[in-house]
Amino acid sequence: MLTKAHRVYRWIRPGSSISSDRLEDNYLPYLGRAIGTCRARLGQTLGQVRNAVRLALEGLRPDRVEAVVELLDQQASYEWPRGRASAERRLRLFEAAAGEHPVLDADRARALLAEALQAPPATHEEAVGHLYADYPEFHRLRAFPANYAAEDLRADYDLGQAQALLYSAVRVTVEARADFKHILRYAHLARLLYRIEALNGGGYRLVFDGPTSVLRHTHAYGVDFAKFLAALVQARGWRLTADIALRKDWRPVAFTLSDAEGLSSRIPAPALFDSRLEESFARKFGAERNGWRLSREAVILEAGATHIVPDFLFTHADGTEVALEIVGYWTPEYLAQKLARLGRVRAPNLLVAVPRARALAPGALPGPVMTFKTAIKLADLLPRLEAFRGRRRSTQR
């Protein structure tokens, strides 16, 4: 990710809003030259590589150059002496030189350096590089990924600039029309506080704020927003609106993004199905069967102070809805946590499918429990779905 010092943005007039910087197509050759420069500089120091990259980027707007240099640093692999040996070697050299202070003779200075470095340095720059090899400026480039292309660097830049604005976010709202489980999963991983509201026409609004962003805004919470964005761009059907406080005493300005922006991240996109069991079941049931329409992760349910997204939602033509959560083969600790969350779900039509080996005592959950051996059988499932329809008709009467 980039830092605040690297961010570039544009004011949008009229109104108090901003947009993050994006690199245009005509700058791809500059990025390609910068990448080629890194690959050609193996064995050189970080400082040398950075300076060479800056030269390769001449013609790129100056406010963009350092951000690109930083992103290339993050892709590269550098090596340096570990431990205290370098510092101890410097100390011995300085102590020896102090005993002869001032060392004015060039030959004597080279002799002291040769003794400390165990080899006479050819130039002053070489001596400094070896003497301070553990300092970041003198770390040496060991490798650069062969498959990293100009388009990858542009994608990292575009995403990094959006993330850098979110460092200063005091409130973020995400309207989600799809991929709810993916979005919630990464919101939890990013340690964000949120509340959920239903949207007219389907979908949910997730409002991210909390004590750290409202009572005492911290940079760390903004970094959590930025991490969340790297996962959000992998989802579908979302729109993000953020209130950005660029400076302490400034009024927040609006920053908006959506899946239509085309931002991308190299965080691996989550699989559509969490397990072969779920994939097999969805294929077997089909999009619709016996008047029931199957949707994948289409609803968010309250579970005490948190929320869960059931694996499937069945919707009948008469309006009956049944959520299905499949509890797979997990460790006993995970299973205990999962069942504890399900036990707090506020949903009358919740069906939980549990492996027979993990069968629960009656009444352990606020809804029917269906057991299965290795796969969920439609002959077992459909009668249970119809039972929910019967309850709905009884309630209506």
Q: What distance separates the N and C termini?
A: 59 Å
Average pLDDT score: 85
CATH architecture of the largest domain: 3-Layer(aba) Sandwich
Order of helices and strands: EEHHHEHHHEHEHEEHHEEHEEEEEEHEEH
Biggest sheet features: 7 strands, mixed
Number of extended strands: 17
Widest sheet, order of strands: 1-2-9-8-5-7-6
Helical element count? 13
Query: In one word, what is the shape?
Result: elongated
The radius of gyration over CA amounts to 29 Å
The fraction of residues in strands falls at 15-25%
CATH topology of the largest domain: Trna Endonuclease, Chain: A, domain 1
- In the predicted model, the low-confidence regions spanning at least 5 consecutive residues are 210-215
Structural class: alpha+beta
- Could you estimate the helical fraction of the residues in percent? 25-40%
Q: Estimate nothing, just give the exact number of structural domains.
A: 4
Write a structural description:
- The protein is α+β, with helices and mostly antiparallel strands.
- The protein has 13 helices and 17 strands.
- Strands 1-2-9-8-5-7-6 form a 7-stranded mixed beta sheet. Strands 10-11-14-15-16-17 form a 6-stranded mixed beta sheet, covered by helices on one side. Strands 3-4 form a two-stranded antiparallel ribbon.
- Mean pLDDT is about 85; it is low at about 210-215.
